[in-house]
From TrEMBL:
This is RNA-binding protein KhpB. It comes from Virgibacillus litoralis. Belongs to the KhpB RNA-binding protein family. The gene is khpB. Pfam families: Jag_N, KH_KhpA-B, R3H. It comes from the Bacteria.
């Protein structure tokens, strides 16, 4: 049961009645007041009951978890999902046996799963979330690889005194490169090309 219409002497009483029937709490529902009701003479004669419609709000994070579970099952990978929420950022940490299948070459499969999870979580929810899908610490390792690549390529650009183009990457990975080279006064970085072939160029 996702929604219920209930009545009571007051709006609050009607809402309370609906919550009990739905077996949930106030912070998990949306309330639509159909009729505020009215007190009758001496509080009795001619009184009209308040009517409300109470709908269980979809839990966006649970929906995304369910989606990730389905995707990994369809890929025949048995996965445990640990969810961390900080403000409006959600991290789903995946762990399991054949986790390399979920990561894919240079994290491409994981990036695709992350993109889809981002769409699912924000599909028709009220809150907007940014999403990270990680698999057994892959994101941390990838960050280190990208930072070391950034410095290596910056040195190359300075040494040869010419532009160096990196391989195409998703926006959040390009951001890591920009950040890693921010303090280097000898070069500048910019993104070039059109998604999904957008890449970073390091220029002396």
């Amino acid at each position: 049961m996702r929604e219920i219409t209930a009545s009571g002497q007051t709006v609050e009483e009607a809402v309370q009645s609906a919550l009990e029937q739905l077996n949930t709490t106030r912070d998990h529902v949306e309330v639509d007041v159909i009729d505020e009701g009215k007190k009758g003479l001496l509080g009795i004669f001619g009184s009209k009951r308040a009517i409300v419609k109470v709908i269980i709000a979809k839990n966006q994070i649970e929906q995304a978890e369910k989606f990730l579970q389905e995707v990994t099952e369809n890929m025949n990978v048995s996965t445990q999902i640990t969810t961390k929420v900080e403000d409006n950022h959600v991290t789903f940490e995946l762990s399991g046996e054949k986790i390399a299948l979920l990561i894919g070459k240079r994290g491409q499969t994981l990036n695709a799963i992350q993109y889809l999870a981002h769409l699912v979580i924000n599909k028709d929810g009220k809150a907007y979330y940014t999403v990270t899908v990680d698999a057994e610490g892959y994101r941390g390792r990838r960050k280190e690889t990208l930072e070391s690549l950034a410095h290596k390529m910056a040195d190359k650009a300075t040494r040869l005194n010419k532009k160096v183009a990196l391989e195409p990457m998703p926006a959040f990975e390009r951001k890591l490169i920009h950040s890693a080279l921010q303090g280097n006064k000898e070069i500048s970085t910019y993104s070039d090309g059109v998604e999904p072939h957008r890449h970073i160029v390091i220029k002396p």
